Amino acid sequence: MKKGLRNWRLFSLFGMMALLLAGCGKPFLSTLQPAGEVADMQYSLMLLSTSIMVLVIVVVAIIFVYVVIRFRRRKGEENKIPKQVEGSHKLEIIWTVIPIILLLILAVPTVLTTFKLADVKAMNDKDRDKKGTVVVNVRANLYWWEFEYPDYGIITSQDLVVPTNEKVYFNLIASDVKHSFWIPAVGGKMDTNTDNKNQFWLVFDQKATDKAGGVFYGKCAELCGPSHALMDFKVRPLPRDQFDAWVKKMQNAKKPVVTDPVAKQGEAIFNKSCIGCHAVTPLDKRPEQARTAPNLANFGDRQRIAGILEHNEENLKKWLRDPESVKPGNKMTGTYGKLSEEQIDALAKYLMSLKVE
């Protein structure tokens, strides 16, 4: 008896914790605080399916309680057999028709939403650049993200910049293993494969963006290796005029001129050992196969280092000193121990100076 009571208390405690934690979502990450048209549609489907499930549970629970009370064994009626109803056509029709109706209520809006989300004709329009349609080629890598704007000739990494209150179209592909592109608060998710492109669109709501502080978190939603949970990126939605200004800045960006002597030493180190993998211009002309590491053109403007660390010089030095301790299995792990502290200081100074905005 005591053991059962103890288990019940433990179950109640976990139940209360789950209820409390369910309300802890942040607007920049929570799927329960939709921040765009796609997220709104998905959230509505979640509410609809949950409502149907709760309704079924409540009805079944009521019937169960009624049957237990109504047909319980009473004193003096131990041998009485209740009226048998097996083979009742009426009951069979009821419990067949009701689930069909519930499935139709769920299936119709789900199918309509699926076809609406799959409509990407605008991104394949030959005149899309004249119509202002924004298309982003997303390439997932172990364990970082590349974002290419083919109509603007811009390539960036880790920070995705998009206009608000309009459809933004995405081509998704992976360069190594399967990943999954997901911005929880805005919508998704969709796989990135190595052998074919997936296409879809999202809308970033301006009011929701302001509420989230101007930044949303993106995630990899497909188990892809030891640093899968650390494969984050940041999304910066901007009003259209600010987005256009950002595009012009990126298009006009030139190789930075370094004047600080320490940063100049870091530039020499970078050009000797890092330039083979990384680029420092957003107008990188290398073919896709040659982009083996993130583009660092606007590294000094980014929100995070390695997608997860706060953007400051100390964390950058930590990453350069031992990448494996930050993201196990990443492709920079082989640099461990090859740089002296003086070289790390110089390289960090140079990288933090790479700014476009």
UniProtKB/TrEMBL annotation:
<keyword id="KW-0812">Transmembrane</keyword>
<keyword id="KW-1278">Translocase</keyword>
<keyword id="KW-0249">Electron transport</keyword>
<keyword id="KW-0408">Iron</keyword>
<dbReference type="GO" id="GO:0004129">
    <property type="term" value="F:cytochrome-c oxidase activity"/>
</dbReference>
<keyword id="KW-0349">Heme</keyword>
<keyword id="KW-1003">Cell membrane</keyword>
<dbReference type="GO" id="GO:0016491">
    <property type="term" value="F:oxidoreductase activity"/>
</dbReference>
<dbReference type="InterPro" id="IPR011759">
    <property type="entry name" value="Cyt_c_oxidase_su2_TM_dom"/>
</dbReference>
<feature type="transmembrane region" description="Helical">
    <location>
        <begin position="90"/>
        <end position="112"/>
    </location>
</feature>
<comment type="similarity">
    <text>Belongs to the cytochrome c oxidase subunit 2 family.</text>
</comment>
<dbReference type="GO" id="GO:0005507">
    <property type="term" value="F:copper ion binding"/>
</dbReference>
<keyword id="KW-0732">Signal</keyword>
<dbReference type="GO" id="GO:0020037">
    <property type="term" value="F:heme binding"/>
</dbReference>
<dbReference type="InterPro" id="IPR045187">
    <property type="entry name" value="CcO_II"/>
</dbReference>
<dbReference type="Pfam" id="PF00034">
    <property type="entry name" value="Cytochrom_C"/>
</dbReference>
<keyword id="KW-0186">Copper</keyword>
<dbReference type="InterPro" id="IPR009056">
    <property type="entry name" value="Cyt_c-like_dom"/>
</dbReference>
<dbReference type="Pfam" id="PF00116">
    <property type="entry name" value="COX2"/>
</dbReference>
<dbReference type="InterPro" id="IPR002429">
    <property type="entry name" value="CcO_II-like_C"/>
</dbReference>
<dbReference type="InterPro" id="IPR008972">
    <property type="entry name" value="Cupredoxin"/>
</dbReference>
<feature type="domain" description="Cytochrome c">
    <location>
        <begin position="261"/>
        <end position="355"/>
    </location>
</feature>
<dbReference type="InterPro" id="IPR014222">
    <property type="entry name" value="Cyt_c_oxidase_su2"/>
</dbReference>
<keyword id="KW-0472">Membrane</keyword>
<comment type="function">
    <text>Subunits I and II form the functional core of the enzyme complex. Electrons originating in cytochrome c are transferred via heme a and Cu(A) to the binuclear center formed by heme a3 and Cu(B).</text>
</comment>
<keyword id="KW-0813">Transport</keyword>
<keyword id="KW-1133">Transmembrane helix</keyword>
<feature type="transmembrane region" description="Helical">
    <location>
        <begin position="41"/>
        <end position="69"/>
    </location>
</feature>
<dbReference type="InterPro" id="IPR036257">
    <property type="entry name" value="Cyt_c_oxidase_su2_TM_sf"/>
</dbReference>
<feature type="domain" description="Cytochrome oxidase subunit II transmembrane region profile">
    <location>
        <begin position="23"/>
        <end position="121"/>
    </location>
</feature>
<dbReference type="Pfam" id="PF02790">
    <property type="entry name" value="COX2_TM"/>
</dbReference>
<protein>
    <recommendedName>
        <fullName>Cytochrome c oxidase subunit 2</fullName>
        <ecNumber>7.1.1.9</ecNumber>
    </recommendedName>
</protein>
<dbReference type="InterPro" id="IPR036909">
    <property type="entry name" value="Cyt_c-like_dom_sf"/>
</dbReference>
<dbReference type="GO" id="GO:0005886">
    <property type="term" value="C:plasma membrane"/>
</dbReference>
<feature type="domain" description="Cytochrome oxidase subunit II copper A binding">
    <location>
        <begin position="131"/>
        <end position="249"/>
    </location>
</feature>
<keyword id="KW-0479">Metal-binding</keyword>
<dbReference type="GO" id="GO:0042773">
    <property type="term" value="P:ATP synthesis coupled electron transport"/>
</dbReference>
<dbReference type="InterPro" id="IPR001505">
    <property type="entry name" value="Copper_CuA"/>
</dbReference>
<keyword id="KW-0679">Respiratory chain</keyword>
